[in-house]
Amino acid sequence: MRATLTTTYRSLLANMTQSNTRLEELRLQAATGKKVTKPSDDPSAIRPMLNARGQIRASDRFLDTMGIAGERLDVLDTHLERVESVMVRAKETLVYAGNGSLSEADLKTLGNQMQLMKDELLALANSSVDGKYLFSGFKEDTPPYSGDPVAYAGDNEAFELEIGPGEKVKVNLTGEEVFGDPGTGKDMWQLFDNMVSALDVGDAAAALAEMDDLDRAADQMRSQRSRMGNLAQRVDSAKLNMEDVRIDMEAMLSRYEDADLVETITNMTMQETAFKAALDITSRVSRLSILDYMR
Amino acid sequence: MAGLMSALNAGKTSLRTSQKAVEIAGNNIANVNTPGYSRQKAVFQPVPSLELRGFFIGQGVNINNIAREHDVFLTRQIHDKSGQLGEESSRAAPMAELERIFSVAENNLSTEIDRFFDSWKQLSANPAGQTERQIVLQRGDLLARSFDDAVTSLRSAQRNINASIESKITAINPVLQEIADLNLRISTVEISGQSANSDRDRRDMLIEQVSRELGATYYEENGKVSLQLPGGQPLVQDTSAMSLEPQLDADLNLQLVLRTGPNSTTELKSHMVGGEFRGLMSVRDEVIPERMAELDHLAFTLAKEVNEIHTDGFDLDGAGGLDFFQISVGPDPENGYAKAMAVAITDTAKVAAGKGNTGIGDNRNALNLAALADDLTVMDGNDSFTGYFSKITSKVGIEAARAQTSAQGLEDAMVQIRNMRDATVGVSLEEEMVDLMQYQKGFEASAKFLAVVDELMESLLSLKR
């Protein structure tokens, strides 16, 4: 093929332009650290990238929610611990009342103590955190227990938090679950009322007859507490797991999105060499001409 | 003496043709950088011989034509390729704008969708919370605005395309007219047996421009070219040129109209033209409307699904949930919804977080709504909202990458073909210099020849003294 001035310069220009464009792309990659900055850079990477970002955001939310779940379970546990200690004291009082050597006046005093314990339990049952009653189910704005005889005003709904994709944990206990009838035909308040009134009239035997039911009420309360404890453990392990998922997602996003800096800079150096060569060749072209050989 | 006179004359023709040849080489050198210039070459021809006392002796030399080096095949290839190149490269600018709208950066529409559903997750952890309820409303509002922004940007991309089509129309009409004028000049010159070299060069350049912009095809007859659009409509016929005119349609989009006569016009759709016009029009009339329709579909389906669950729930006051997003009823409520999307409620108490009308702690509906984000069947039964959005974005990416690659490929091909053309018809300085030396030698020899003839005549004349 015949080479003319135009063809030579045109080819050189095309090479230099391409070389420079590629260099520019690599510089941009190195400067931003990203190999995908617009959809056309890698259309097939878009879905995994957006997906990974969404999952990272979701993980952050789940971790946040798990924090809330953990706090709620902790608060419940603290309250149930206090309920348990009252129940232990109630049982000690009942055992003491049954030793047969107490006078009617002594029993009456124990009755008064028992009444105070019931009041303490009632206060615990009606306790609220941040304006929300712990044991009312969904009726967080309603005190669960009031009236005489004490009646339950909450509901039996489970408050669940989502701590993972489709994974929900119950983080509340309703009044019925803790203070309700454990199958004895009476709830906690009826049980205490029975003991108080028996002790009030000095009927130690009648008071002592409630012992089994007191144990069953305490068992019910303890089993709920240990259920919550298990859940708290599950939340803890889910949290570790979610943190791992988040790291995996970050890695996945990075794999699709981030430029390998070493590779980019190596490529850039190579491209710079190519560009320099193109420049050098271009400057050489003009040095050789028939004009220089004519007189 | 008669023989010497004829030799003198022959020497004169030789001197003159050598000088002409030097001028032609000079003109080639002068045009070494003129785009589209085809090298010209003197065609020498001996002057017919005369019988001189029984011998036929030549009478010198003449330049009978200045020929233009030309390769019809390569010229046509350049014209064809420039139409394709025009089509692909004209997409670059609008596609870059689309890539910006459907961005892969942190803050895109898919992030807003994620954030909207995230706000429901946040609400589910504290269903009675005023702040959480407020955030849900705000996120809904921001999501609607993001859809609106995307549509507004797409419309502005269309307007930019309209502006560039309009300026192209203004530029192309004089070119068509000039081609028609050149048809007249070339046919007039060539009918008299001359070659209209530079006019042909100029016309080839103009045809290339029309090919690039409109993808025109052409044929030549009696020195006149006829240009047609890919759809067959004539652009230049004989010595008259049609003109393109802009016309606004109902959507305020600029349409192309071809004026074929004082009272007759043809509307040109994107498939009837080629080149840059087609590239621009297809982005405006096909790519962008398709993406807009997909945004409408996404926004509408999202609003519909959210409303369905929201109206299933109960608000803070225990009343049944209202529509969360405004959806107007009509024959085609989906059409234009991305722009019209808006949150329908303003009162935080009306956010339906609960599933029953039981109590303020009920978070079940908030959980249901949050779950929509991960539902892989909400979009036409086979995709999630963000999955559908990534599909739209991928389409934009694929389209943009395809246009870039194919424009680059065509650009490379164009360099090759132009080089091939210049290898045949372009000016090579080395070659011209050698020619120059050759003609110079010819000139010098003719001069010497004349001097010899002159001496001979001198000798002849001295005989008579």
TrEMBL record, chain A:
Domain of life the protein comes from: Bacteria
Report if keyword Nucleus is assigned.
no
Q: Which GO terms describe its biological process?
A: bacterial-type flagellum-dependent cell motility
InterPro entries in the cross-refs: Flagell_FlgL, Flagellin, Flagellin_C, Flagellin_N
Query: Where would I find the Flagellin C-terminal domain in this sequence?
Result: 212-294
Write down any Gene Ontology CC term: bacterial-type flagellum hook
Q: Which residues form the Flagellin N-terminal domain?
A: 11-138
Instruction: Tell me the compartments it is located in.
Output: Bacterial flagellum
**What GO annotations for molecular function exist for this entry?**
structural molecule activity
Keyword terms, alphabetized: Bacterial flagellum
Name the principal localization, coarsely classed.
Answer: other
State the similarity comment.
Answer: Belongs to the bacterial flagellin family.
Q: Could you tell me what this protein is called?
A: Flagellar hook protein FlgL
Q: Give the species.
A: Geoalkalibacter subterraneus
Lineage of the source organism?
A: Bacteria, Pseudomonadati, Thermodesulfobacteriota, Desulfuromonadia, Desulfuromonadales
From TrEMBL, chain B:
Keyword Cell wall biogenesis/degradation in the entry? The reply is: no
One Pfam family in the UniProt entry: FlgK_D1
Q: Which Gene Ontology CC terms are recorded?
A: bacterial-type flagellum hook; extracellular region
Q: Which GO terms describe its molecular function?
A: structural molecule activity
Q: Which GO biological process entries does UniProt record here?
A: bacterial-type flagellum assembly
InterPro entries (alphabetical): Flag_bb_rod_N, Flg_bb/hook_C_dom, FlgK, FlgK_helical
Q: Where in the cell is it found?
A: Bacterial flagellum; Secreted
* Domain called Flagellar basal body rod protein N-terminal: residue spans: 10-37
Domain of life according to the entry: Bacteria
Annotated family: Belongs to the flagella basal body rod proteins family.
> What is the name attached to this protein's record?
Flagellar hook-associated protein 1
What is the organism field in this record?
A: Geoalkalibacter subterraneus
Q: What is the lineage of its organism?
A: Bacteria, Pseudomonadati, Thermodesulfobacteriota, Desulfuromonadia, Desulfuromonadales
Q: Which gene encodes it?
A: flgK
